[in-house]
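With this grant's support, the team has encoded backbone shapes as discrete tokens. A representative record is reproduced below.
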Amino acid sequence: MTRVLAALRTDVALQARNGLYAISVLFASIMAGALIWLSSAESLHRTVPMGILFVVGGSTLMYVVAMVLLERDDGTLEAVSVSPLRPREYLAAKVASLSGLAVFEGIILAAVAMAWLDRSSLAGAAVPLVVAGLLGLGVLHTLVGIIIVVRYSRIMEALMPMGLVALLFQIPALYFIGALPSRLALAIPSAAPAMLVRAAFVPLEPWEWAYALLGTALSIGIAAVWAHRAFVHHIIRKGVRA
């Protein structure tokens, strides 16, 4: 636990030094303005999940790819294979710091839009549900970003697969705004935590609650196992051989 906390403090400091928090504030504020312009109090249940998927999902993938490749260039990743910090501890620190950044960014986006369009939407369980959905999306996108980025050594190589995954994970936004009525969109992992965000605004049916909770847990569990295996294979083992 001590090693994880130390790694977490280092990650947060590095992210702050590289301006990720300032970028998040600026980006979320601009997108909140766009959401206010395009939305209304009656449509928050549609537009807030859409906005969070577009903004938080895409930016989290970009952040994790950029930070991991920066550490690869600095030799930090190779050092993990011979340091006391275990792969699971490294990944836990990354997930915690970048998910926290996703929640920070998403809260700005959602809270500004909700406060401007319908202040009453901030009451009750709305805010905890939005935070729960943001946390699920942050963890999921961070793990998926790690699965992608450990295979590459340059950002230009990682941009194409990262962009394709970002587009795929944003398809459920079309379902939430009613542009894609087919429930096939719910097969995409990002839809489950986004459903938790939707629950902040409208009552969910029992199957939607089951899907949101179980789908989020299952997606994160699978992604965590996959990310750990990918990290060990592409970073630890190859780093040892090198």
